[in-house]
Input
Amino acid sequence: MNDWHIDSDGAQRCWWPGDDPLYQHYHDTEWGFPVADDRRLFEKICLEGFQSGLSWLTILRKRENFRAAFAGFDPEQVARFDDEDISRLLTDSGIIRHRGKIESTINNARRALALMDRHGSLAAYFWRFEPPEDERPQQFTKAALCANATTTTSSALSKDLKKQGWTFVGPTTCYAFMQAMGMVNDHVEGCHVRAAATAARAGFHPG
Output
């Protein structure tokens, strides 16, 4: 079986988006492309935390609801959320109503502000963890990527975040975040997006 397949729109993609148009758009325009914007980085790591135990497509379909519920993932605003906001979010059927994950997002917003004060931006902090070439999958196959759900670097990022008080940031979640923010380009060989993501990284500077 190929690690890619030709979808209904005629494009050759990684196997995982299937024929869902929303998933395909995410795969083609976001996943694996480098991000330096702090609000987008905060959104991505929070949504990866919400995804824990669920499918990413479930989160993707609710993403606009999450954005509305969490003030566009502005860390300064989310950091001010209180018990009343938690109660509001627990009744919001448009998001994942998991108290632990909701409280984690608020906590992590406060931790994010501390990181921004210390490093100047979330981008400056996160991009310090870009993995060395020899840690990245060499063949970019489905088997290689599944085996790399946790890496030395994602474990190091997880450990450092937890040390600073972040929650729902285990090594697997951190590796998914690294893929989503373009720190690693895990589009498989044969995927039509792989070259575009590689070119985007070549011209990218975290700032």
Observations:
- The chain has a mean pLDDT of 91.
- The beta strands are 4-6, 12-14.
- The two ends are 41 Å apart (CA to CA).
